[in-house]
Specification:
Elements: H1 11-32, H2 44-55, H3 68-86, H4 91-120, H5 122-130, H6 132-144, H7 146-151, H8 158-179, H9 184-198, H10 202-218, H11 223-244, H12 268-297, H13 327-347, H14 358-384, H15 390-410, H16 414-420, H17 425-437, H18 444-448
Helix pairs in contact: 1-4, 1-6, 2-3, 2-4, 3-4, 4-5, 4-8, 6-17, 8-9, 8-10, 9-10, 9-11, 10-11, 10-15, 12-13, 13-15, 14-17, 15-17
Length: 449
């Protein structure tokens, strides 16, 4: 009698096996990692201290590293870690376990989404049957690509923002393309995903909201789009409010201090104040991005060189702060540099040119795969002149473009840029599946004949 039956003959069994393998590797990694912050994720120490500070119920504004800023911009990661710390885990293990659980949940979410789509969409089911190896290979790549996998079990918030980003787009996909209607469950998940994305990394929360709103406005004639727009705006207001509130206490009891103009009284004045703050944030976003790009370059061994812009003399820099720029100048320079900065974000460090350490060498080797993937996508687009399942893919593509331009302009060094790039791996894999499975568009002459 066989104790276990490992016959992996169905899509479901293969996906479950990969999830289980990921779980096993995560357990092993949790116990073999050193008892000090890893060189691959030196920020682990900061997050561990912040989780411990939160577990002790100390004032967020008094946190010695980043004050309340780190807490309000990462509470969806820090609060679970603080809970684990409070029940007995040491601070470093608590952030690592939180990150690993988020990473495993992400894999479970993608598995559930694939199986849900296969059960409801005959075209997707046929795709899985026609290209079984492609489907499993792409899922394996998502689960175990070295950089993404490492970030998903080190004590960093990368896995948290990835989970909530995928939750937001998964809920949009299910509502807009599968069910064609909003249920309480799917609507709540969409709003919650946006809120938690803001409390994982507010910059990404903005990109998610803008990408979804652009997609819904393009499809404004659809009744479901008109229903979804208010929900997205609710998520934006609540997420933005939570990510800008100055919290006096970080205790896990749920009590918070004064939140100033972002209080939760629900009055008309508060709503108007929040709306004004949102508009103000949008107006100053470009200048803040340019400023943070310069800050992120400081003392970085792999600092990203900033190309000159025709209006550089008018743009705010770290060196000359006497003349703040107009929004036009700043946006113009961001657009001018966007192609170079986005390419730098996607493909650097490069071997020999950018390798300054062992970790940068490994990153450069992995970037060969990124370059190869994009070259393949480009060639197949020229050859076939179309993308398969472009409708469901559209929100992800909008997010991908906005994120690459924004991150390229924001990042100041290649180390953090490479780490943040793992957030768009799922879009690249969807693009690969799309160009591979797309049917070649007939030649116009053949059509007329």
């Amino acid at each position: 009698m066989k104790l276990f039956n490992f016959e992996l003959t169905t899509l479901k069994s293969k996906l479950y096996a990969i999830v289980f393998a990921s779980f096993v590797v995560r357990v092993v990694a949790f116990f073999v990692l050193p008892n000090s912050p890893s060189a691959l994720g030196p920020d682990e120490g900061t997050y561990a201290r912040a989780a411990n500070w939160t577990a002790l119920g100390k004032s967020a504004t008094d946190f010695p590293d980043f004050g309340a800023g780190l807490y309000v911009s990462g509470r969806s990661f820090l609060l679970p870690a603080a809970f684990l710390n409070k029940i007995g885990l040491n601070p470093l293990d608590s952030v690592r376990l939180t990150a690993s659980l988020y990473g495993l949940l992400t894999l479970c979410l993608v598995t559930a989404l694939i199986l849900h789509t296969a059960a409801r969409n005959t075209n997707f089911a046929q795709f899985a049957e026609r290209f079984p190896r492609l489907s499993i290979t792409l899922f394996l790549t998502f689960a175990f690509l070295p950089s993404r996998f490492i970030w998903s079990f080190l004590g960093l918030r990368e896995s948290a923002i990835e989970f909530w980003t995928l939750c937001a787009f998964a809920s949009l996909y299910v509502v807009f393309h599968c069910h064609k209607k909003i249920s309480l469950k799917s609507g709540t998940l969409l709003v919650a995903s946006i809120i938690f994305a803001f409390s994982s990394r507010a910059q990404v929360g903005w990109v998610i909201v803008i990408a979804i709103l652009i997609f819904l406005l393009i499809n404004i004639r659809e009744r479901i789009a008109l229903t979804l727009i208010p929900l997205v705006l609710v998520g934006l207001v609540l997420g933005f409010t939570g990510s800008t509130a100055t919290t006096a206490t970080t205790g896990t009891t749920g009590t918070t201090g004064t939140t100033g103009t972002t209080g939760t009284t629900g009055t008309t004045g508060t709503i108007a104040s929040t709306g004004g703050e949102i508009l103000g944030s949008l107006t100053s976003a470009a200048q803040l991005t340019a400023y943070k790009h310069q800050v992120n370059k400081l003392n970085a061994a792999s600092a990203i060189a900033t190309p000159r812009c025709p209006r550089d003399g008018l743009v705010y820099t770290m060196v000359n702060t006497s003349r703040p720029p107009s929004n036009f100048d700043t946006y113009f320079c961001i657009a001018w540099r966007a192609p170079y900065m986005a390419a730098t974000f996607l493909f650097r460090p490069l071997i020999v040119i950018d390798t300054t350490s062992t970790s940068s060498l490994f990153a450069a080797i992995e970037n060969i795969a990124w370059l190869g993937a994009f070259f393949f996508i480009f060639v197949m687009l020229i050859k076939k002149r179309r993308l398969a399942f472009i409708g469901p893919l559209a929100p992800s593509l909008i997010f991908f473009i906005l994120y690459c331009v924004g991150a390229g302009s924001y990042e100041g060094n290649m180390g953090t840029a490479f780490r943040h790039k793992s957030l768009i791996l799922w879009v690249v894999l969807l693009l690969l599946a799309s160009v591979i499975t797309a049917e070649k568009r007939p030649n116009p002459r053949n059509e007329s004949a």
